[in-house]
What does this fold into?
Amino acid sequence: MRATVLLLAALALVPPTACWGAAGHAVVGLVAQTLLPPGAARLVGELLSGSTLGDVAAWADTVKRKGPLAYTFDYHFADAHDDPPRDCNFDDARDCPTGACLVGAIANYTRQAGCTGPRLLPRAQRAQALKFIVHFLGDIAQPLHLFLRGRGGNDQKVVFDGMPMSLHAVWDTGMQRDVRAAGRPEKRIRSDFGGSKDSYAAHLVAQIRAAAWGDASAWISPFGPDDTNARGNSLAAIEWAVEANAIGCWAAWAPYDADPAQDFGAAYYRDAVRVVDHQIARAGVRLADWISRIAAACRPVPHGEL
Ligand SMILES: *[C@@H]1O[C@H](CO)[C@@H](O)[C@H](O)[C@H]1NC(C)=O
It folds into this structure.
């Protein structure tokens, strides 16, 4: 009993998650894995020793709070110092001046995973960099990762299907999969896909292939993995940050301000879940393309050299 109370108290102290929940990240990875061309799939298989992008997608969240990689915490977001929903904009020079944020980290780990630097890094470091890329290309599609307001909605306490959580958590986990035991109704995956991340990912891939959101190749940035600005920030990632910030303005903040006391599992959910689908699909397509462009610059790794 006592132990249970302590455990619950400890759980309550865990800071709010700062990314799609594990399920959202895994679905981004699963979508991308399905779309990888053969050369890119080979690189992923080699670096991840047979694990898939879905398997490793949530890893970065497990190392960001303590231990030797805790310095990566700030790399999961790029906070716009704007005034949503009245005035939304992501300004790279203002919002990520030192490169120590999502758009800088994407450039950094892309360089480490790839083969265009002066020398190839050790395999373990390239593998770790790839795991960061998989995660960060998911985070940059989560609209609330692009706002300083309320620390990305972590300070907005709301109710979702009768359960208290932050606005940030509504977007991270509230909408995707049900894990009620852990207190987070990840509703999209539970109510529409029988609790299966794979089915949700397969649905999104089918939607992408059917051009449900138009031609998905339009989601690909003209900027490549090596294109950065003077701050070292990724030009493609900056485009994605600008886009997600604009989406968060009308999809996350405006309907929040219209009625902060509503139950977010009802009308808010119905509108926002369409945005969640779209953003996860976008992230998966972009991730598959990003990795294939990285792979194109790498020669195949001969056996025994890894
Ligand atoms: C870049 O990677 C290095 C080595 O892993 C790390 O020390 C540094 O903090 C990273 N910086 C960013 C902005 O990702």
About this structure: The chain has one domain: 2-305. The beta strands are 157-160, 163-166, 178-179, 184-185. Residues 71, 75, 99-100, 104-105, 108 surround 2-acetamido-2-deoxy-beta-D-glucopyranose (CB under 6 Å).
